[in-house]
């Protein structure tokens, strides 16, 4: 299918009518209508509801609209990279971050990248880890910054991972009064009001049960910031990764390392598509991160592959 058909289809959808799209594209309306029919024939589905005053997308039409935008963006990026001499000075940097990853250093790196490559556009997507992994697999982003226990996808590269520690975070004076120890056991935590991330509840339940303890968290949240805010308010002890608490700006909280447990803690992880699928733009950004932040990547990961 001619890529221009997809570009014209996007305009038709966004303009809301063939007449408006024809005017904007300077293409005769019958020609656009024939392109729509060709797309519908190719995909075996109607893209618009007929008879509506304003064009309304069918379910198939909505899917094609999203995919068409992605295809046109990829083609544009490829052209920009080629015309810029493979230097990665043009194009779009597409990265994803999880909601628990709000790192000022990343923002500083993005600013530095923007200054070094002023002709490069930057798109940062925030979503939960499963959605980001899906976007990475689909090529909608080229690198993601997440907290992950492990990555099992063979077609992705784990470029950097940093181990983390499980801590019990709390407001000074609210809990553990007079207790100067640096660690805390599950037995000590069991009767306390606990604040947990929703996705971590099953793992904690299993760990507590293994020691013959019960777990009844007082507060369960989908976002780590909320879990930590309960601790900041003095209402609970939050069980979270230490690095995440620091990145999110909760350094005012006291904490103790949780002992006597083999719970796997999500670690700060940078994941990207395999080298042969990555653009020079994202490799330039990852190289900048490596230089600025000391992230250790596998040797030669930024080398060019020549056909």
Query: Could you say which structural class the secondary elements and strand pairing correspond to?
Result: alpha/beta
Give the tally of structural domains.
3
Oligomeric description of these chains: single chain
CATH superfamily of the largest domain: Periplasmic binding protein-like II
β-strand number: 13
Low-confidence stretches: 298-307
Gap between N and C termini: 27 Å
How can the largest sheet be summarized?
A: 6 strands, mixed
Determine and state the CATH class of the largest domain.
Answer: Alpha Beta
Number of helices: 11
CATH topology of the largest domain: D-Maltodextrin-Binding Protein, domain 2
Q: Percent of residues in beta strands?
A: 15-25%
Query: How would you describe the shape?
Result: elongated
**Which CATH architecture of the largest domain would you pick?**
3-Layer(aba) Sandwich
The helicity comes to 40-55%
What is the typical, i.e. mean, pLDDT?
82
Q: What are the secondary-structure elements, in order, as H or E?
A: HHHEEHEHEHEEEEHEHEHEHEEH
Q: Output the radius of gyration.
A: 25 Å
Taking strands numbered 1, 2, ... along the chain, how are they ordered across the largest sheet? 8-12-7-11-9-10
What descriptive keywords fit this protein?
single chain, 307 residues, alpha/beta, Arc Repressor Mutant, subunit A, D-Maltodextrin-Binding Protein, domain 2, six-stranded mixed β-sheet, five-stranded mixed β-sheet, 11 helices, 21% strand, elongated, disordered C terminus
């Amino acid at each position: 299918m001619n890529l221009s058909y997809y570009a014209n289809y996007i305009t038709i959808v966004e303009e809301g009518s063939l007449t408006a799209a024809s005017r904007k594209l300077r293409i005769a309306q019958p020609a656009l209508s024939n392109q729509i029919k060709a797309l519908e024939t190719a995909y075996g589905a109607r893209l618009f509801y007929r008879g509506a005053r304003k064009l309304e997308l069918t379910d198939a039409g909505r899917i094609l609209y999203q995919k068409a935008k992605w295809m046109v963006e990829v083609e544009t990026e490829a052209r920009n990279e080629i015309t810029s001499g493979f230097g990665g000075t043009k194009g779009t940097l597409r990265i994803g971050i999880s909601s628990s990853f709000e790192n000022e250093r990343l923002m500083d790196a993005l600013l530095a990248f923007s200054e070094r490559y002023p002709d490069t556009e930057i798109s940062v997507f925030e979503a939960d880890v499963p959605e980001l992994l899906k976007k990475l697999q689909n090529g909608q982003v080229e690198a993601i910054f997440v907290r992950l226990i492990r990555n099992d996808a063979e077609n992705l590269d784990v470029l950097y991972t940093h181990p983390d520690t499980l801590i019990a975070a709390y407001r000074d004076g609210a809990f553990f009064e007079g207790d100067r120890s640096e660690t805390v056991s599950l037995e000590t935590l069991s009767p306390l009001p606990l604040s947990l991330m929703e996705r971590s509840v099953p793992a904690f339940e299993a760990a507590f049960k293994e020691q013959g303890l019960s777990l009844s968290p007082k507060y369960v949240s989908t976002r780590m910031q909320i879990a930590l805010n309960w601790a900041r308010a003095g209402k609970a002890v939050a069980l979270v990764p230490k690095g995440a608490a620091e990145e999110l700006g909760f350094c005012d909280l006291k904490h103790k390392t949780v002992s006597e447990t083999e719970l796997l803690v999500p670690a700060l992880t940078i994941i990207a598509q395999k080298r042969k699928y990555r653009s020079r733009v994202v490799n330039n950004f990852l190289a900048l991160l490596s230089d600025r932040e000391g992230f250790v990547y596998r040797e030669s990961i930024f080398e060019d592959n020549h056909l």
